[in-house]
From TrEMBL:
InterPro entries: HARBI1-like, HARBI1_dom. This is DDE Tnp4 domain-containing protein. It is found in: Nucleus. The lineage of its organism: Eukaryota, Metazoa, Chordata, Craniata, Vertebrata. Keywords: Hydrolase, Membrane, Metal-binding, Nuclease, Nucleus, Transmembrane, Transmembrane helix. It comes from Cyprinus carpio.
């Protein structure tokens, strides 16, 4: 049996077909019965066609009830804006004026375009998230709750902020001194600690990290925990003039030095200009001061190794040398005191650690150069002013230089 039905309201053809013989379906029926059954089937077909058309043509659009989860912005928008200067420094480790300066310098890099979907997070808030994480080392969830943003957003902002500081600010704030700036460093070491011809102090520091999945044994240092090494050169004002970070904690400081840019410059005679002073009959070039872990070079002076046979003069030289060299130890202390994330285990991928360290060292210099004193439990560390970039050296026997300085300090005693 076949029906081909059409309707003006539905404008759809419906074909109802069966392969069963008529008698099997209906039996011996009269013409009136056939006519009634046909009309019933036709009506059912028309209703079905109209129902299908309504489903496809009148489908309502799906609407979202929630686009962004509502989060409290009160801490950043209200509490922080009402902080006193002391409270601001306590939370963000820098003054409000320095914070505004960093925001302005990074504005082009961190600003995001506003779209029809939502407003972007402001530059001030992005800098606030990055600085707060560096200053406290708090977990992403805690910072997300404070700033009223998602945890994944905190992670992205922290990484973007550190990378922006490294690319935009670091070239201006971490550079080897030269010219008048170098002369200022030399005079600073001479005036503060009585050490002549000193262009800076060099040392290494371990930055704790979570053990990486790959080659974790290489990062296990002699102190018994996993770390990445930071080598820093510091001037008389506790500012970093060169940093080199990323080597595993098990590597010796001397090996890190040999692979650094500072070593390459010094060995080529380009670290400092070839200027020397005659001291006790010996031409003494401009030098860095280092601890016993480093090799003795004409551009790198270390103290006498204490094997129990040192003379009184040699011990006194070591005392004078140590006083001047402690500048770099003090700088590391101020660095980790300001940016507490470096004093905790960095829970990030090990490939990101050098960028985070670079950002911390750069912001450390920004704070120091903006005149922000650093206070710790033991009191206030002396504060100082500016610096700049580097040249070559005079090749003189380093042991003769050390002996000449030993005699100088003894004569001034």
């Amino acid at each position: 049996m076949r029906f081909n039905a059409s309707s003006d309201s539905c404008s759809e053809n419906v074909l109802i077909e069966t392969s069963e013989p008529r008698d099997a379906m209906w039996g011996p029926v009269t013409g009136a019965a056939v006519s009634g059954a046909s009309l019933a089937l036709l009506a059912a077909a028309l209703l079905y066609a109209c129902h299908r058309k309504r489903l496809f043509s009148i489908a309502a659009p799906v609407r979202r009830n929630v686009w962004v989860r509502s989060r409290s912005q009160e801490w950043w928008d209200t509490d922080v804006s009402g902080f006193t200067n002391t409270e601001f420094i306590s939370n963000l480790r820098m003054t409000r004026s320095t914070f505004d300066y960093v925001c302005e310098r990074l504005r082009l890099t961190l600003s995001r375009e506003e779209t029809c979907l939502r407003r972007p997070i402001t530059v001030q808030k992005r800098v606030g998230v990055g600085v707060y994480w560096l200053a406290t080392g708090a977990c992403y969830r805690t910072i997300a709750n404070l700033f009223g943003i998602a945890k994944s957003t905190v992670c992205s902002i922290v990484h973007e902020f550190c990378e922006a500081v490294r690319r935009v600010l670091m070239p201006h704030y971490i550079k080897l001194p030269k010219g008048d700036a170098l002369q200022e460093v030399i005079e600073g070491f001479q005036q503060r600690w009585g050490f002549p011809q000193c262009g800076g102090a060099i040392d290494g520091s371990h930055i704790p990290i979570i053990a990486p999945e790959d080659n974790h044994a290489e990062y296990f240092n002699r102190k018994g925990w996993h770390s990445v090494l930071l080598q820093g050169v510091v001037d008389h004002r506790f500012c970093f003039t060169n940093i080199y970070a990323g080597w595993p904690g098990s590597v010796h400081d001397a090996r890190v030095l040999r692979n650094s840019h500072v070593y390459s410059l010094a060995e080529r005679g380009e670290l400092f200009p070839p200027v020397s002073n005659l001291i006790m009959g010996v031409q003494v070039p401009i030098m860095l001061l280092g601890d016993p872990a480093y090799p003795l070079r004409s551009w790198l002076l270390k103290g006498y190794c204490d094997t129990g046979t040192l003379t009184a003069e040699q011990k006194y030289f070591n005392e004078c040398h140590s006083r001047a060299r402690m500048t770099v130890e003090c700088a590391f202390g101020r660095l980790k005191g300001r940016w507490r994330c470096l004093a905790k285990r960095l829970d990030v991928d090990v490939s990101l650690v050098p960028t985070i360290i670079s950002a911390c060292c750069t912001l450390h210099n920004v704070c120091e150069m903006h005149g922000e004193n650093y206070e710790e439990a033991g009191g206030t560390v002396p504060h100082v002013e500016r610096w700049a970039e580097g040249g070559g050296f005079v090749d003189v026997q380093p042991s003769r230089i050390r002996e000449a300085l030993t005699q100088l300090f003894l004569s001034q005693r």
